[in-house]
UniProtKB/TrEMBL annotation:
This is TetR/AcrR family transcriptional regulator. Residues 34-53 bind DNA. Keywords: DNA-binding, Transcription, Transcription regulation. The keyword DNA-binding applies. Residues 11-71 form the HTH tetR-type domain. It comes from Hamadaea flava.
Amino acid sequence: MATNRRERQREATKQEIRDAARAQLTEGGPGAISLRAIARDMGLTAAALYRYYDSLDALVEDLCADRYDALTTEVLAARDNGATPLDQLREACRAYRRWALRNPHEYALICGEPVIDTMHTHVEPTPKGDAAMRFTLAFLEPFTAIWHARTTPPQPLVPGVAEALSGPNVEALRQALPIEGVAFFLIGWTRLAGAITMEIFGHLRWATDDVEPLFEQNLEDMLRQLTM
């Protein structure tokens, strides 16, 4: 019992540290996160803080996972209000955009660095990587239902696409989809994330000051292609 209480106290302190880091992030962006400033604000010594996070990278990794899970919770809540798989996927995409618009610095944090370092042949699981996969799977369930309900065969893949899809997490997608479905999922994913990223970082201001209709058009085009 004492050990459990100690673990709960440790996790509560780590959550307080993450909350302090998130406040810095919200105020100044990813570059504003500072272990020394967090220690000062919490009334801890730097040495005491390092007992919970041994580096800034470790804290940022944990914060990324925490923010990914917050985003996933919101996406799932919106998704599960949809009456059909198509509605569920549409609402999940909209929830993704809404969260990003409300939390631009958090979006920049979780999307700024690769989740997986492919320079290493053996990829170790990380909190951020695991959280990112949970986020991805929130979209995969309705996507898979729509894909398998198709009544026409998909367009053939460009030569080399199937062979190129060999990343460390592709197998998780292959458990639910054929390789053509995996390719379409990734194409849709890059299109969705790309549209949101361009909006968040202001790369569409030259064209419009109201991006939502453009996003909705993009989304409906993607969904239409999925059901054709």
